[in-house]
Design a protein that fits this description.
Blueprint lengths: L17 E2 L8 H6 L1 H12 L2 E6 L2 E6 L2 H9 L5 E2 H9 L12 H11 L5 H20 L7 E2 H18 L6 H18 L11 H25 L5 H7 L10 H32 L1 H12 L14 H13 L6 E5 L3 E3 L2 E3 L4 E4 L1 H5 L43 H18 E4 L8 E2 L5 E2 L4 E6 L4
Parallel strand pairs: 1-2, 3-9
Antiparallel strand pairs: 2-3, 4-6, 5-13, 6-9, 7-8, 10-13, 11-12
Helix pairs in contact: 6-7, 6-15, 7-11, 8-9, 9-11, 10-11, 11-13, 11-15, 12-13, 12-15
The structure holds protoporphyrin IX containing FE (HEM).
The site of protoporphyrin IX containing FE (HEM) has 22 residues, from helix 11 and helix 15.
Organism: Nocardioides marmoribigeumensis
Pfam families: p450
Keywords: Heme, Iron, Metal-binding, Monooxygenase, Oxidoreductase
């Protein structure tokens, strides 16, 4: 299953086969409703390398673990992240780390890494308990409780505090800031991509300006004193070579990080709530581990939550928070016997591999033990399970995100019990990152606080 280590001479190879679908929109509507069905069809017809029309472009689809490996390993530096992603997410996350390439990306990543050390993540974990508890105090357990919007509010609140902590902004200003951030995220996937009055695009541009103004206004304070929040961490981060971020870098990175952290964590939490609700045996097992710890587990305590960790991995497999990853070929290259000409827009789909029967046994089944020692189905290929991507752009926040998810789940399991009909099939909207379009109704009950 391993792709060849060297890139073949592209000029000698055939172009990928493919299909346009409808003019301009191509297969966009099908993707939004059922990306897996679409990829399955494309793979059955053409194999791992093909192209399809979507969102006004011809996208070369590189499907399966070998094709993903070729993209992420990027042996001949042919695939650029910035131009691939900016076509999809617009100008709202300009110059965020994922939108940079080459030496510039490498330099920025070296600096940013200093804000994501194990020590910092441990301190952030301790700082999460207060806001998580406060947010859960507002939950009103009931049958049909809409878990997804409640989790989204919780993670947004948490991100604003952990990322921007220490600001003295009024609750109204913070609410406006949250709104601006949501406007940017929604604008990124809007159909109308010019700033006409009343459009999401225009609201997104305004949102970006508001976020920039807010961050610039608070920069001098974040620069003056080093505190535990991410804003301050970016202001003071210094690579081993002594490189630091400019003010503009800090602002751009903060806006991107808010986006990178927020929906991905929410989706993971909501998928875990769904599956634990449908599998009470797993819910009991995870709760027993949580209750054996103190009420405010530290990052080190997370090692004592092995069942919850298995559930997190399995949930990210089944509901892959970043279903596709975008790139653009900046020179001719070759993947699995096909020529990918310079200029091609390229996507690879962790979602597809995560559901592939060529990789997983009974892939649609919720079976966290597949990740347990003795089975380790994810070890069949380096890119069997890759919700955080791979290569030089591999998610920088994966440990931070893991700490957040385990912290929130620990509080949820301690404070609540919930059930979801075992036959429930979650309707997922893939317009942007995947989310349950019905809000994920769960039957939520309080537990006596232990
Ligand atoms: C918990 C769920 C998360 C998932 C599934 C996830 C997934 C991903 C993926 C797939 C990429 C790679 C995209 C690419 O190759 O083009 C990525 C990049 C990134 N993520 Fe995450 N992410 C998560 C949480 C977070 C959090 C919490 C943060 C920050 C606090 C974060 C920060 C980043 C950054 C900075 C990058 C860009 C890295 C680079 O380009 O060098 N992510 N993430």
């Amino acid at each position: 299953m391993s792709p060849s280590r060297t890139v073949q001479d592209p000029a000698t190879l055939p172009l990928p086969p493919g299909r346009q679908g409808l003019p301009w929109i191509g297969h966009t509507l099908r993707y939004v409703r059922d990306p897996l069905g679409l990829f399955d069809e494309v793979y059955a017809e053409h194999g791992p390398v093909s192209w399809l029309g979507a969102a006004g472009r011809r996208w070369t689809c590189l499907l399966g673990p070998d094709a993903s490996e070729a993209v992420f390993r990027n042996a001949d530096h042919a695939f650029a992240s910035g131009p691939g992603w900016s076509y999809l997410v617009g100008p709202f996350f300009d110059r965020g780390l994922m939108l940079l390439d080459g030496e510039e990306h490498h330099r920025h990543r070296r600096i940013m890494q200093q804000a994501f050390t194990a020590d910092r993540i441990a301190r952030s974990t301790d700082a999460m308990h207060g806001p998580v508890d406060a947010s859960l105090d507002t939950w009103r357990p009931t049958g049909g409780f809409a878990a997804y919007p409640a989790l989204k509010e919780l993670t947004l609140d948490l991100a604003t505090r952990l990322f921007m902590g220490g600001t003295d902004a009024s609750p109204e200003r913070m609410a406006a800031l949250n709104r601006a951030f949501v406007d940017c995220v929604q604008a990124a996937t809007s159909v109308v991509r010019v700033p006409l009055p009343g459009t999401r695009w225009r609201r997104g541009l305004r949102g970006r300006i508001l976020l920039e103004d807010f961050l610039r206004e608070h920069l001098p304070r974040a620069r003056a004193v080093e505190t535990d929040d991410l804003f301050s961490a970016l202001c003071h981060a210094r690579s081993e070579e002594g490189e630091v971020f400019t003010d503009a870098d800090v602002v751009n990175h903060m806006i991107f990080l808010l986006m990178a952290a927020h929906d991905t964590s929410t989706i993971t939490l909501s998928a875990m709530m769904q599956h634990l609700g449908q599998h009470p045996d797993w819910q009991d097992r995870c709760r027993a581990e949580v209750l054996a710890l103190g009420s405010r587990p530290t990052r080190a305590d997370h090692a004592a939550l092995p069942s919850l960790d298995l559930v997190m991995r399995e949930s990210m497999r089944l509901v892959t928070p970043v279903p596709v990853v975008a790139r653009q070929a900046v020179k001719d290259t070759a993947v699995l016997g096909h020529r990918i000409p310079a200029g091609s827009f390229v996507m690879t789909a962790p979602l597809f591999t995560h559901h592939s029967p060529e990789v997983w046994r009974d892939p649609e089944r919720f079976d966290p033990e597949r990740f347990a020692e003795g089975r380790r189905e994810d070890k069949v290929h380096r890119y069997a399970w890759h919700p955080f991507g791979g290569g030089v752009h591999k998610c920088l926040g994966m440990h931070f995100g893991g700490a957040e998810v385990l912290t929130v789940m620990s509080h949820l399991l301690r404070r609540f019990e919930w059930r979801v009909d075992p036959g429930y099939v979650c309707p997922i909207d893939y317009t942007s990152l995947p989310f349950p379009s019905d809000g994920l109704p769960v039957d939520l009950r309080p537990r006596p606080v232990a």
